[in-house]
Design a protein that fits this description.
It is a single chain. By secondary structure, the chain is of the alpha+beta class. Among the domains are: 100 residues, no CATH class; 86 residues, no CATH class. The chain has 16 helices and 26 strands. Strands 14-13-12-11-17 form a five-stranded antiparallel β-sheet. Strands 3-4-5-6 form a four-stranded antiparallel β-sheet. α2 packs antiparallel against α15 and α4 packs antiparallel against α6. The longest helix has 63 residues.
Length: 714
C-alpha cells in the first residue's frame, strides 16, 4: 500500500504543479497586450522523502526580468521626458521672438525703428514723426510682452514642478507599500508577481519624472535611490520631497524617514522635473537676460542720440530719470563742458546760456568746476554746492533746477523760453561715458520707471550712500541652476564704495568663496565667478540709498532677474508718445548770431543719427549664453537671434534623439520581458501533457488499488 500511496503522492504533486503552470500561462496570455506586464514562469523543483523521489512542487513563480535593460529603460525614459519638457517650452519661447526674417518679429521691428528714422530724416513731416514714434513703441512694447510671456512660461514650469513633486511623493509611498506586500507574500510563499508588476509600473512612472537608480531587495521588492545615492525608498520606508518655487531660483529639499530635512538641489538632473528645473532656473532666465541685454542696448543708444538733440520748439521743462545716487556723487564724476540754453520758443534764438565747466578742479575726477551765465564771470562750485550754485546762476535767466530722489529737473519759468542742452564739441561733459543730459536722462526718448543705467560713475573713494547695518541676501547657484549657498551681506561702517565692495567679497559673509565683485571705471559693479557658470541672484534686498531709496541690487543691476525686470519697463516717453512732434531731432547751434535761430524746424539731423543707431559700436556685458562683446546693435540683435534659434533647435534635436533611445530601450526590454504567444503555446502544451500524465498515474494507482482489493476478497 505504501507504494500506491507514493504513486498517488507523486501524481498529485504533478497535477498541482501542472495546474499552477497552466494558471501562469493563462495569466501571461491574458496580459499579452498589457503595458508594463512582465511575463512570469514557474520554477519547479523535485520533492524527496528520505532517499526516494516524492514528486514535484512549485519552488517559485517569478518574473522574467533583466536588471540591466530595466535600468537602461528607466534612464532613457528620464532623459526623454526631460528633453521633451525643455523642447516644448523652448519652441514656445522661440515663437515669442518670431522668425527674424519675418515682418513682425522682434528683430525685424528693431530694423523698422532704424528705417523709420531714416525715412524721417529724408522727408521730415508730422506723419513721418508719428511713424517713427510708433515703431519705437512697437519694439519696446513687444519686448515687454515677450518678457512677460517668458515669465509666464517660468511660472507654468514652476507650477508643473510642484505638481510633479506631489506625484513623486505619492509614487514613493505606493512603492514602499508594495514593498511590504511583496515581503509578506514572499514569506508565506504567495504569488507576488502581480504586486511586482504593479510596482514596476510605478517605478517606470517615477523614472519619467526624475532620474532614479533601482535595485531589487532580498524580499523581492525594490530599493530606489536618487542618482547621487540618496535613499528614496528603502527598508525603513519612503522619503518625501518638498519644492519651493519662489524667486530667485527653485529649490528642492528631502525629508527622510527619520524626519531629517536636507537640501536636494542638484540631485535631479533628468526626468520631467529635471527638464523643468533646467527651464525654470537656467534656460528661460537666460532668454530673459538676452532679451534684456538687447532691449537695454537699443534704449541706451537711442537715448544717447536723442539727448544730443532738441525738439523744436524746445520743452519748457526737462525731468530726468533716477540716477539712484546723490547729486554730489553724480557731479563729482563729471569732466568736460556743457551748456544749458534758454531758447525763445517763437524765434528759436538763444536768449540765455548757462555754461558749466566740470574740468577746472584738480584731482581725478575733478572735484570743482565753474558756472557762467551769458559769457559772464565764472563762479566756482563743488559737488556739494552744485545745485545751489546752478540755481543761483539760472535765477537771472528765469530758470530753476531741482534734484529729488535722484532725479534732476530743469524748468524755465519764462513763458517764452524753452530749454536745450548741448555738450561742448571739443571737450564734452562726460560721466561714465555719458553726456550731461544722457547721464541724468533729461531728454530720453525711451523712459523707464526702474533704474536701468548701471554705469553709476562712482569710484572706489566715493561714498556708497548706504548706511551701516543694512542687509542684502544673495544666492550663488551652479551652472545647472542648483543652489550652492545663500549669503547675507551687511553694509559696512566705512561707507565708501571700496568698503561696500570689500563687504560683498568677504569669504565669511559675502560671495568670496565663489567669486568677486569689482567696480569698473564707469562705476558699474560686476560679479566674476571663480568657476565658470556659477551665477548670482538676489534673494532679498533690504538696503536703501540715503538720498534716493534705491537698493544696492537696483542701483548696480545685480542679478539677471533684476536687469530683466527693469528692461521690461521701457516705454516711449509719455509726452513724445502723446505728441510725436516732441521728438528731439534738431541740433542746437550755439554759434548762431544773437537774435538768429539756433534751432531749425526743418532740421532732421537727429533723425538721421537715430536711423544710423544700429551701426554704432556698443559694449554689451556677458549674459547667459552670450559672451561680453563690442558690437553694433544690429549685429548684436543677429547674435541674440542666432543663439535663441540654435537653443530651440538643439532642444528639438535632443528631444528626438532621446525619444529614439527611449523607444529602443523599451523595445529591447520588451523583447525579454513581454509575453510571446508562441512560447506560451509550447508551455501550455507541456503543462497539459504533464497534467494528463499525472492524471493517468492517478488512474493507474486507482486501478492497481482496485485489483489488490479484489485479490484479498474485500
Amino acid at each position: 500500500m505504501s507504494s500506491i500511496n507514493s504513486i498517488l503522492g507523486n501524481a498529485s504533486s504533478g497535477l498541482q504543479t501542472a495546474q499552477t503552470g497552466l494558471t501562469v500561462v493563462s495569466d501571461n496570455v491574458a496580459n499579452v497586450n498589457t503595458t508594463g506586464y512582465v511575463r512570469k514562469v514557474v520554477d519547479q523543483t523535485s520533492l524527496t522523502a528520505g532517499t526516494q523521489g516524492a514528486g514535484v512542487t512549485v519552488a517559485d513563480i517569478k518574473r522574467i526580468t533583466n536588471t540591466y535593460l530595466e535600468s537602461a529603460s528607466y534612464s532613457a525614459n528620464a532623459s526623454s521626458s526631460a528633453a521633451s519638457a525643455v523642447a516644448g517650452s523652448m519652441d514656445q519661447a522661440e515663437t515669442l521672438f518670431g522668425d527674424p526674417s519675418a515682418t513682425g518679429s522682434l528683430f525685424s521691428n528693431l530694423d523698422s525703428v532704424f528705417s523709420a528714422f531714416s525715412t524721417l530724416a529724408a522727408n521730415p513731416s508730422s506723419t513721418a514723426n508719428a511713424a517713427a514714434v510708433s515703431t519705437v513703441s512697437q519694439f519696446f512694447n513687444q519686448s515687454s510682452s515677450i518678457s512677460s510671456s517668458l515669465q509666464a512660461l517660468g511660472t507654468q514650469a514652476s507650477q508643473q514642478i510642484g505638481t510633479d513633486v506631489g506625484t513623486v511623493n505619492s509614487l514613493l509611498k505606493q512603492i514602499d507599500a508594495l514593498n511590504k506586500t511583496i515581503s509578506q507574500g514572499s514569506v508565506t510563499g504567495a504569488d507576488i508577481t502581480g504586486s511586482q508588476n504593479q510596482q514596476s509600473q510605478l517605478v517606470t512612472q517615477l523614472s519619467s519624472l526624475m532620474d532614479v537608480k533601482v535595485s531589487q531587495n532580498s524580499q523581492g521588492g525594490v530599493t530606489v535611490l536618487s542618482t547621487d545615492g540618496t535613499s528614496l525608498v528603502g527598508q525603513s520606508g519612503a522619503s518625501q520631497l518638498t519644492y519651493t518655487g519662489s524667486n530667485p531660483t527653485s529649490t528642492l529639499s528631502i525629508t527622510n524617514t527619520a524626519g531629517t530635512t536636507s537640501s536636494f538641489d542638484g540631485k535631479i538632473s533628468s526626468g520631467e522635473i529635471g527638464g523643468l528645473l533646467q527651464l525654470n532656473n537656467v534656460d528661460l532666465p537666460a532668454l530673459s537676460s538676452q532679451l534684456a541685454s538687447l532691449t537695454s542696448g537699443a534704449a541706451t543708444e537711442l537715448n544717447a542720440i536723442h539727448n544730443a538733440y532738441s525738439s523744436v520748439p524746445p520743452p519748457t521743462t526737462m525731468t530726468g530719470e533716477s540716477t539712484g545716487i546723490d547729486l554730489p556723487s553724480a557731479i563729482s564724476g563729471f569732466s568736460g563742458k556743457t551748456t544749458i540754453a534758454l531758447v525763445n520758443t517763437s524765434t528759436e534764438a538763444v536768449d540765455h546760456t548757462v555754461a558749466i565747466n566740470f574740468a577746472t578742479g584738480s584731482g581725478t575726477p575733478p572735484t570743482a568746476g565753474t558756472i557762467s551765465v551769458d559769457g559772464g564771470a565764472a563762479v566756482s562750485f563743488t559737488g556739494a554746492n552744485f545745485l545751489t550754485t546752478l540755481n543761483s546762476a539760472m535765477s537771472s535767466t528765469g530758470a530753476t533746477a531741482s534734484y529729488t530722489n535722484g532725479v534732476l529737473s530743469l524748468a524755465s519759468n519764462s513763458a517764452t523760453d524753452g530749454i536745450a542742452i548741448q555738450d561742448d564739441a571739443t571737450t564734452p561733459a562726460t560721466n561714465a561715458g555719458e553726456g550731461f543730459s544722457q547721464f541724468f536722462g533729461l531728454n530720453n526718448l525711451v523712459s523707464s520707471a526702474a533704474t536701468t543705467n548701471y554705469n553709476t560713475g562712482l569710484s572706489a573713494t566715493d561714498p556708497s550712500g548706504y548706511p551701516a547695518g543694512q542687509t542684502l541676501t544673495l544666492r550663488l547657484s551652479t551652472a545647472a541652476g542648483a543652489k550652492l549657498q545663500d549669503v547675507t551681506v551687511t553694509t559696512p561702517a566705512g561707507g565708501t564704495m571700496a568698503d561696500l565692495v570689500t563687504a560683498l567679497n568677504s569669504n565669511s559673509s559675502g560671495v568670496g568663496t565663489y567669486g568677486s565683485f569689482s567696480l569698473d571705471g564707469n562705476g558699474a559693479l560686476t560679479f566674476t565667478p571663480n568657476t565658470p557658470g556659477t551665477s548670482l541672484s538676489v534673494v532679498a534686498d533690504n538696503t536703501a540709498n540715503t538720498a534716493t531709496g534705491t537698493s544696492v541690487s537696483q542701483l548696480f543691476g545685480i542679478g539677471a532677474a533684476t536687469r530683466s525686470s527693469a528692461a521690461a519697463t521701457y516705454t516711449v516717453r509719455s509726452d513724445i508718445a502723446a505728441d510725436p512732434g516732441n521728438l528731439a531731432v534738431a541740433k542746437l547751434d550755439l554759434s548762431a548770431a544773437a537774435g538768429t535761430a539756433a534751432l531749425a524746424s526743418g532740421d532732421a539731423s537727429g533723425a538721421d543719427a537715430l536711423g544710423q543707431a544700429g551701426l554704432a559700436s556698443l559694449k554689451f556685458p556677458a549674459v547667459s549664453g552670450v559672451s561680453a562683446q563690442t558690437s553694433t546693435l544690429s549685429n548684436y540683435a543677429a547674435t541674440i537671434s542666432s543663439v535663441i534659434g540654435n537653443k530651440a533647435a538643439a532642444a528639438d534635436s535632443a528631444k528626438t534623439a532621446a525619444a529614439t533611445v527611449s523607444t529602443n530601450a523599451t523595445s529591447q526590454l520588451s523583447s525579454v520581458e513581454s509575453v510571446s504567444i508562441d512560447q506560451e503555446l509550447i508551455n501550455l502544451t507541456t503543462y497539459q501533457q504533464a497534467y494528463n500524465a499525472s492524471a493517468r498515474m492517478v488512474q493507474a494507482a486507482n486501478d492497481l488499488y482496485t485489483t489488490l482489493l479484489g485479490m484479498t476478497g474485500n
